[in-house]
Amino acid sequence: MKTIVSGARPSGRLHLGNYIGALQSWLKLQDQYLCYYFIADWHALTTGYAESGEIGENSREMLIDWLSCGLDPEKAVLFRQSRVKEHAELFLLLGMITPISWLERCPTFKEQLRELEGKEIHNYGFLGYPLLQAADILAYRADAVPVGEDQLPHLEITRDTARRFNHLYGKILPEPEALLGRYPLLPGIDGRKMSKSYANDIALSDPPETIREKVNRMITDPQRVKRKDPGRPEVCTVFKFHEIFNTAEIPRIQTACRSAEIGCVQCKELLARKLIEVMAPLHEKRRSLEEKPAYLEEVLAGGEERAAKEARATLQVVRGAMGL
């Protein structure tokens, strides 16, 4: 069975955008690969070092969401990045051979400097995080990494680093392939990209009343002023949700919207009911997990033991190759 590695920063409870993007892909992959899925708590420090007090609780919430959605610790290795110290050692060793120019040219580095303008992130950790990602992946000698197209430059740094290491010390580290996925883009309730930082998300843990309230605030066709006005589904945020979560009803909703047979209030109520139905099993699983803190720690401890064993084997080979 081939190996894949992926991780996510612990930013707290996940939202529907996370679910239909990375998480649904991870669920399928855990049946096909040996999967290492990690909570990237060190990565969280690269831009959030001043808010580090939230990392522990955010990690717990992320794990609960992972398990609620169906990630299975019997199939996938779930662990905290910071509990497997070999990630840090490999990051250090790879840093000895990685040109600074590789990190400075990373498109995401430049983009985040612009997006987070005014925040003090001109630090070594932020510059070096693509190399820490490379260490995360290469510690398990991964065959592939599930990524979206926007993440390909990061993976290319990993591949370049493995290639340079192998050129210097012999063929030891595989160059992981991209496992490209076409992730549906789910907008937030205001039409922008769904993000907690925009306060426009629907969390996987939101109760039914909150889901209904957020759906009621969704942006619809701005030209549909009156109930009798025909609508344009292609510009409506509510319809984009229907396309993903209510596919069987799409033809009927589309026709009814264009003919003004249903209004925006009715359309939102249909969506709210569907989202509540979809998320009900997740909520039930979450409630059960919240009452089992010992089990949550057991899942992570078991995953960290398995991850550390594999990472130690890689580091033993790497150290030997480098003459250490």
Per the principal axes of the C-alpha atoms, what is the gross shape? elongated
Radius of gyration: 22 Å
Structure annotation, total helices: 13
Distance between the termini: 31 Å
Residue share in helix = 40-55%
Which fold name corresponds to the CATH topology of the largest domain?
Answer: Rossmann fold
The proportion of strand residues reads 5-15%
Sum this structure up briefly.
This protein has 324 residues and is mostly helical. It is 55% helix and 8% strand.
Describe the 3D structure.
With 324 residues, the chain is mainly alpha-helical. The chain has two domains: 3-186 and 293-321, Rossmann fold; 206-286, Orthogonal Bundle (Tyrosyl-Transfer RNA Synthetase). The chain contains 13 helices and five strands. The chain has helices at 16-29, 41-48, 55-69, 86-95, 100-104, 107-115, 124-138, 152-169, 208-216, 237-245, 250-258, 264-290, 293-321; strands at residues 3-8, 34-39, 76-80, 144-147, 177-180. The strands form two sheets. Strands 1-2-3 form a three-stranded parallel β-sheet. A two-stranded parallel sheet has the order 4-5. It is elongated, with a radius of gyration of 22 Å. The two termini are 31 Å apart. The model has no long low-confidence stretch (mean pLDDT 93).
